[in-house]
Here is the input.
Amino acid sequence: MQITDIKSVSKTKFKVYLDGQFAFTLYKGELFRYRIQEDGELGEEVYQEIREKVVLKRAKLRAMHLLNDMDRTESQLRTKLLNGDYPADIADEAIAYVKSFGYINDESYIRRFIESRKNSKSKKEIYALLMKKGVDMERVREILSEYYSAEDSLNAILLGLTGDIDATVPIETLLEDTIFRYKDAYPECVIESDIDCPDASIEIPEIITISLIRILCECLDNVYKHANANRVGINIQIYSDQISVHINDNGIGIDENYSHTSPWNSGLHRIQEIIYLLNGQLKIEGDIISGTDIRFSIPIEIM
Here is the structure.
């Protein structure tokens, strides 16, 4: 395949065209790593490696973040991915991936949508709103009939979101603000934190910033909900090529078989999945004496 064009999207991001057709979007470091330059040739083996190990992995991670930000239908998620310059086949594979874990389910979305608005909007209003979501409207009518024929109103299911994260704010500030919020919310638990960022000018990709904050929130949520701890130590080191994090609490520890015994949609599984998609490393240990020890690292250069 001939590399017919490389178009700049930003200072670090570029669209690559093969044989005159858009193929994928890569970062500057990836262009250098795979020796991609205009009028050059790209072999099938390298093309498949880029597609599977770079573009598809990034699409899966993007899909997970989009679902973490807010509940979405399959149609909405596909539109977001396509608008983000992911090829249609990559978007379809990323959607199939998150669906396989139950992260996206249109019927569940419809039910949550109805439950959260049933007490404030009419059946007709909810139907009109769902028409814009790209879901099966015949199924919407059937589910609406179930809810509006019931005698009792159902309570809305509130999704546990971490809220919007402004990735333009320095990462050190975001981390400090996040830890402060937890200190304020749980004064009975002492948090000792140390954030080491020798170079404040380090440019960290938005996806890594958001991931790090969400992982930190998941870890602290687990401490407060399950560990029964009264002390947490947090050490975060931010360097130009890697972010390393160590979180330790003095709680009841964790089952060594947690990956098999905890629910698939638990916070720990979400942490594992995000770190995996970022090519990071994760180690979780714990017992009733030493509490739970979480260590993970995320490389920066791969983004």
Summary: The beta strands are 3-8, 13-18, 21-27, 190-196, 231-238, 242-249, 281-287, 291-299.
